[in-house]
Write a structure and sequence with these properties.
233 residues, 7 strands, seven-stranded parallel β-sheet, alpha/beta, globular, Rossmann fold
């Protein structure tokens, strides 16, 4: 049974991806910082007939990642963990800035660097990172967050060019507005027009399910209609 490691899997998009990949037949390793939420995710996946292992992990901590993933052998890595303090630049604290860089950027190095060697050795594997269309569409309050997502796009393409000759696929999935609790936002009826987390998970499922000789490197997924006056993301 193929194994998939999903970071930020305790809720939102990450949880939906873990659930979808389990339905697709993956043995899922669900990683996040909260034990209780991870246990809930894995319990639901197991009850539905899937396989899931919780992994309590702070992906921004290089020592913890190295210890937890030493010798890890996974077929698919979904780099989903991400945070965003969406506020004007002059209102963003140094701590908020650093935390976004640590989770959205540096964690990509820690986690991918740990699992990529085994993929290269067996000449198979897939690195799929969740980006955002904000990585190429600036917005007020996104000076750091949007920049981290631009990094995701550039890093993913560079890595793809490096490892494709080893049989390893690299993809980036770029959603538009999604109904989740991201950035402490509480979903409401006003969010009905947005993508659901399941919509993004379906896209990831498609991307990692392509035939061995096919690579979907970049997938941008948006809601079809946007209410008048809304930012078109």
């Amino acid at each position: 049974m193929p194994r998939a490691l999903v970071t930020g899997a305790s809720r939102g998009i990450g949880r939906a991806i873990a659930e979808r990949l389990a339905r697709d037949g993956f043995d899922v390793v669900a990683a996040a910082r909260g034990q209780r939420e991870l246990d809930e995710v894995c319990a639901e996946i197991t009850a539905a007939g899937g396989r899931c292992q919780p992994l309590v992990l702070d992906v921004s901590d290089p020592q913890s990642v190295a210890a937890a993933l030493l010798g890890a052998d996974v077929d698919v890595l979904v780099n989903n963990a991400g945070i965003g303090a969406l506020k004007p630049f002059m209102e963003t604290t140094a701590a908020e800035w650093q935390r976004m860089i640590d989770v959205n950027v540096n964690a990509l190095y820690h986690v991918t660097h740990a699992v990529l060697p085994s993929m290269i050795e067996k000449k198979a594997g897939h690195i799929c990172t969740i980006g955002s269309i904000s990585g190429r569409s600036a917005f007020v309050g996104g000076s750091c967050y949007a920049a981290t997502k631009a990094f995701v796009t550039s890093w993913s393409e560079s890595l793809m060019l490096e490892v494709r000759e080893h049989g390893v696929k690299v993809s980036v999935v770029m959603p538009g507005s999604v109904t989740t609790h991201f950035n402490d936002h509480v979903p409401s009826d006003d969010d009905a027009w947005k993508l659901s987390a399941a919509d993004v998970a379906d896209t990831v499922s498609y991307v990692v399910g392509t035939p061995p000789n096919v690579l979907v490197h970049r997938a941008e997924v948006r809601t079809l209609t946007v209410p008048h006056g809304r930012a078109r993301r």
